[in-house]
Amino acid sequence: GLPSCLLCLCLGTSVYCDDADLEHIPALPPDTAYLYARFNRIGAVRAGDFRGLEKLKRIDLSSNSISWADADAFRLLPSLQELLLPENRLTALPELPRSIGVHVYWGSSLLGFVSALSPQDLKQLQFLHLSDNQLDFIPVPLPESLRSLHLQNNNIQTMHEDTFCDSQDQGQIRQALEDIRLDGNPINLSLFPNAFFCLPRLPTGRFS
């Protein structure tokens, strides 16, 4: 295919491929740090799509038709900080690099939280947004670094008392986790009062 800078707009280390009628990710310049390829028809992410892109920090593939990603598609990117995949057709979470540390947004991808790398392994993760999916559980254990957890509009019906807090440590205060959204799930949060004792704020959701 054509080089990405003929198909897209290259400005410094950023490549803009929004609404370019792409069916696959084009070959990118080796110094690419930011890729925006939203509103295309990309159906899959292959292991070689980002090979050698050691400076790649942000990948935004929102609003495509991605139904699968190779195991090594993202895992081998040492600098990746932000990965955005809302409004696709994913049914599983791709394996992520341990370096990822800021945002993972899945939006309304049809996502089952299945990965060789659990949220606990993402020790710098601050924002985990998994709204508008088909999750029937809260992915645990959650890293201590987490500040925001959005799980609204899923199918979560129950939770364990250790979901957010350590039930064996009644003096625990989880200061960082201030934003939890569970609204739009078939769960009555008032049935699990012992799950919230360490939080600075109660989750948003149904308490009746």
Automatic annotation (TrEMBL):
The keyword Mitochondrion does not apply. Keywords: Disulfide bond, Extracellular matrix, Glycoprotein, Leucine-rich repeat, Repeat, Secreted, Signal. Residues 4-34 form the LRRNT domain. It is found in: Secreted, Extracellular space, Extracellular matrix. SMART domains: LRR_TYP (SM00369), LRRNT (SM00013). GO terms for biological process: articular cartilage development; bone development; collagen fibril organization. InterPro entries: Leu-rich_rpt, Leu-rich_rpt_typical-subtyp, LRR_dom_sf, LRRNT, Mimecan/Epiphycan/Opticin. SUPFAM superfamilies: L domain-like (SSF52058). Pfam families: LRR_1, LRR_8. Residues 1-17 form the signal peptide. One of its GO terms (cellular component) is extracellular space. Belongs to the small leucine-rich proteoglycan (SLRP) family. SLRP class III subfamily. This is OPT protein.
